[in-house]
Fold these 4 entries.
Entry 1:
Amino acid sequence: MAGSGLQQRVAQPPAICFVDLTGYTRLTEERGDEAAAQVAARLVALVNDISRRRGGQAVRWLRDGGMFYFREPGTAVVAGLDMVERGPAVDLPPAHVGIHTGPVISQDGDVYGRTVNLAARIASYAQGGQVVVSQETAQRSSDPQVRFDPLGAVELKGVTKPLPLYRACRRS
């Protein structure tokens, strides 16, 4: 192929985004199950709307959060910022988001693999109101309205080496 001037095109790896609400368990204890269910329903409505608008797809819901698949890392980052910024307007506790970019295995409507595991660990590291991304995601995102502030190499549970992470923010 190379001799004929043709090159094999390597597809851009997808981004996996986890969103989670801060303080959901405490909210359930303080306000009860019905209030918690209402909060979860508002989260589902908000995040489904944002992910659809940004070209993402919900993969699975986990009581107070969810996992989403995006073909483009840059749109995953912008969707994550939308999620943390728009939550307070619909009376949600602060959300935190983690995003990693890399290969995944798709099976029976779900996705699996190291990329998924790292995205979940990154989301666990993020604080309320933060979108934290891996170096791979930051490098593959090209939206001029987003900047990435380095957080350094962070040790994540179950991950053998510290992972360079970045906090995504909208440019002023």
Entry 2:
Amino acid sequence: MSRKAFVGLMAVALASALFAGCGAQSREAHGAQLFKTCAPCHGPHGQGDLTLRTPAIAGLPDWYLTAELTKFQHDIRGAHPDDMEGHRMRPMARTLYQKGDLEAVVGYVSKLKPVWVPPVMAGGDVAAGQKRYMTVCIACHGADGHGGQALGAPPIGGQADWYLEAQLKKFKTGMRGAHPDDKSGAMMRAMSSTLPDTFAMRDVVAYVKTLAH
């Protein structure tokens, strides 16, 4: 290769790298801008809000955020007439209609510092919850509660206890996970049906809150 050709090749490579860097910065800025519509409910740091019944989302995996936002956009989640929180989230997810919007906000949220939401619910037998967790939850969410993409299971250790219990109830009643296209939701619905009542759910949640985030 001639010196002139080599210099030309290096110039193209440098320009491509600079363009890619600018593109990444642009996506990050776009994600930050889009997140401003999420912050009033989920908090400026993605920490969630009990009064608004919104979960912590900061640092959740990009694959999980993408999957759930897509479900909201296509009425796979949040369409049940009794799911008040879902009714608020569906139209918000649908504002991400421009090309690259969903990817940008997911990229931004997934890079936020993960939060650990302190427990607010009283009661719950940790020992009993551990036994149930090892039978019902561990196959998907893992011994450490970190979850895994292969089974569509999100990390749950740092999540709010009230939210975890609320979702177990939604899965058990079919408010969530009943749509035929919600494969991961169907698995959760089946698992939640093994928990006979709220007390059993609270035991499991009490144990989950002992897991490292």
Entry 3:
Amino acid sequence: MREIRSRADDVEDKEKGIKIAKKDWEKLHLHIASHNNFPTAAGLASSAAGFACLVFALAKLMNVNEDPSQLSAIARQGSGSACRSLFGGFVKWNMGNKEDGSDSVAVQLVDDKHWDDLVIIIAVVSSRQKETSSTSGMRESVETSLLLQHRAKEVVPVRILQMEEAIKNRDFTSFTKLTCSDSNQFHAVCMDTSPPIFYMNDTSHRIISLVEKWNRSAGTPEIAYTFDAGPNAVMIARNRKVAVELLQGLLYCFPPKPDTDMKSYVLGDTSIVKEAGLEGELPQGIKDKIGSQDQKGEVSYFICSRPGRGPVVLQDQTQALLHPQTGLPK
């Protein structure tokens, strides 16, 4: 609030009869209502979404005319990853060199149209709040993990450059190798922490096994996986055809519980479900790719998505969480 207010400017809306001088923002109070349409504190970057949304909304409200990169330095003070969520497409968080951290900002590498073949399928393995928060877990890893020190000095700087090249060239083979390796190493760091942190569970491991078998069977990487600080899998398919087949395989291995409505089991871009044609026998080609799946894991639900465009201002006020007349939460 302090950072945004210090950058605020005059606001005037003649239609609504609103006129607020820059100096007046210090005297005004705010009602803030926040809502996620995905699990909170479950390892799906809910804090990043929340703080990015808050900073973006405040900046729009107070007429802050600053580059999103400068705003990202404010957002990351609430949640580090939030700095990246102020942009769409593929975003890099620059570490910066200044002691005060003022140059530790996010920059957009490419927009969401650059690689729009990609489709994202998220398996929400557990929507429960995790036992170890991302903040406390990272603090403990910094203090106790020797692997984290090696990773920060030797591994990450090289991988960032390699990932930038893979994204710019739309090199899915390199992208998959880097994405999966970095996810696995992050969780190795968690295991190397004292006491060890266990974010993934048996279903998470089954999903990794499924993707690895799939890519080996295909002869070339078709799916990348990554896990944040939680058990939930983010799978990135190289194109829509692969995504449709992947969803068929996932629903075969992780079927909904009896009487579950498919509309509540697969969310987001539900057109993929229609293309998957879930009636009838699973095609043999997909069975060959996923291999033997004797044990059925449990998934709460799936979300189908794609690389997004970043924050936008709502045009439909019925979606707003605040009452337009009173300004209070609905």
Entry 4:
Amino acid sequence: MSKVAFVTGGAGGIGQAICKRLADAGHKVAACYIAPEKETALQWQEESKSQGYDYYLVEGDVSDFSSSQAMVQQIEKDIGPIEILVNCAGITRDTTFKKMSEDQWKGVIDINLNSVFNVTKQVIDGMLERQYGRIICISSLNGQKGQFGQSNYSASKSGMHGFAMSLAQEVASKGITVNSISPGYIGTKMVMAIPQKVLDGIVSQIPVGRLGTPDEIGAVVAFLASDDAGFITGSNIAINGGQHTQF
């Protein structure tokens, strides 16, 4: 059955693959963008239409509570109640903690973690009323194991796990699942722009011997969003090619 899915950061590399997989599953898909990225987002929307995908785009800032509220209200007014939420928006501002500024810390926490509260807060009441919902947080390998120069990013992504596990317990009896996914190194345009020597060093640390693909992340999101995943909640799915394993 077709549902409305909202993917924050949907115009990004992994976000685009998630949108495509959710659309392939028959859902109506909405994504958001910030004002400086409007041209790029609209270009992606047009290119997607030529491929048969009609995504709904809305402008807004997930790091701002009021803006998140306005975006969700607009989506639900135009295409229907949101039953699938994918918290995918994220940025990096890498540097050692010794050199890290307050703005570098707050900027990453606001976009990566506070956005999860800002957006989820707007949809949870409706999900509770309808007794159905799927909430999926896109975390990171480095939210599990940490990473040099990423104390801000790792803290934000680790926080997503705690959020998902806690909210899952609150809403499990109401037909709502909450899970996280931890991608490792994925072959997005950003990663592929890394100098080849550095990229080769990264791949050498991945047991399967390659980068992951955005579509592999999208496939897991689509599964967690499906009715087949109704017994999975409070879980994290690591997708890192064996680079980091946990019991």
